[in-house]
Design goal:
Length: 307
């Protein structure tokens, strides 16, 4: 027994063998170079617009020194303010609409499967793959046909903007976003066990209470991620905004598109930088909420991607 203990002690005291260094293959170098090239391709244009937002010149294309004049002039430009306000209000309304409808649709697909899900998923996929120009023309004709809250005769206003113009943007931007939210929520709930909801039902909890206390907390990470994604999709929606917007409710992408016909000012780059900062801030807030809810970084990434 003493010999065995001595042998065990010598074995435990033996230093661990270090694994041999991994040999770097040429394929590893090629993949690293390819990955770096992809990131450069994606983010250099964004970096350029951020840098040119500090252009002290009068024209965006001509660099005339570093300065904050573009940001100072930004607050005195009424049309830019109106376009920015319209985009924010439209994105808020479209994201709330898409999140509500998409969450309910995603829950139905995950918890009530059946033959109907095949046809419904086909409709959702059709919304995603339909060219946006087709959606824009169809929405324009549909708004003119039905009138009502989408027609010129609807005289209500919100913050100085015609409500019928905002309604057009709410529905137009929320159309594509709803399909995205549906898939994200469905993917989230498909991986969640139904035992908690079934246990609540066995304890005679009514459906609304089960949804509020069990289902909603389980799906909340996907709801927050979907809300942010729908907000971002609405902010940069150009084609539908161009066809459906009206005077007095012109969103930021339409304003930039109109400015391309004349001369681009550094104020456009400055406002784009501000919107980028707001989007990154919102993304950080959502990631913080998801982290506090117990999700790991991998789970957050999967939720953002609809996995």
């Amino acid at each position: 027994m003493t010999a065995t203990a001595t042998q065990a002690g010598s074995t435990s005291a033996r230093p661990a063998e270090t694994p041999p260094p991994r040999r770097i293959e040429w394929t590893d170098v090629l993949l690293w170079a390819w990955g770096i090239g992809v990131f450069i391709f994606l983010f250099v244009p964004i970096l350029v617009i951020v840098v040119y937002s500090f252009n002290a010149g009068r024209y965006l294309e001509t660099w005339q020194g570093f300065g904050f004049e573009a940001f100072q002039n930004l607050w005195n430009n009424g049309p830019i303010h109106d376009a920015f306000k319209t985009s924010i209000v439209a994105a808020m309304g479209a994201s709330v609409l898409a999140t509500i409808l998409g969450t309910l649709a995603g829950l139905a697909l995950a918890r009530k499967p059946g033959k109907w899900t095949v046809g419904f998923l086909f409709v959702v996929a059709l919304v995603l793959v339909t060219p946006e120009i087709v959606d824009a023309i169809s929405l324009l004709l549909w708004y003119v046909f039905i009138g009502g809250p989408f027609g010129n005769g609807f005289s209500a206003h919100i913050a100085g903007m015609p409500l019928f113009g905002l309604n057009r943007l709410f529905v137009g931007h929320g159309l594509f976003a709803t399909a995205v939210v549906t898939l994200i929520v469905r993917a989230r709930m498909s991986g969640v066990d139904e035992s908690l909801e079934e246990a609540a039902a066995d304890l005679y909890a009514p459906p609304m209470r089960r949804f509020r206390q069990i289902t909603l907390p389980l799906v909340m990470p996907a709801v927050l991620a979907s809300l942010l994604l729908a907000f971002s999709l609405s902010l940069d929606n150009t084609i539908i905004s161009t066809f459906t917007s009206v005077a007095g409710a012109t969103p930021w992408p339409v304003y930039v598109w109109s400015a391309l016909r004349s001369i681009l000012r550094p104020e456009i780059a400055a406002m784009s930088t501000v919107m980028l900062a707001l989007t990154l801030f919102a993304l950080g807030c959502v990631a913080l909420v998801l982290r506090r809810s117990g999700d790991s970084s991998t789970d957050i990434a999967k939720t953002m991607a609809g996995g």
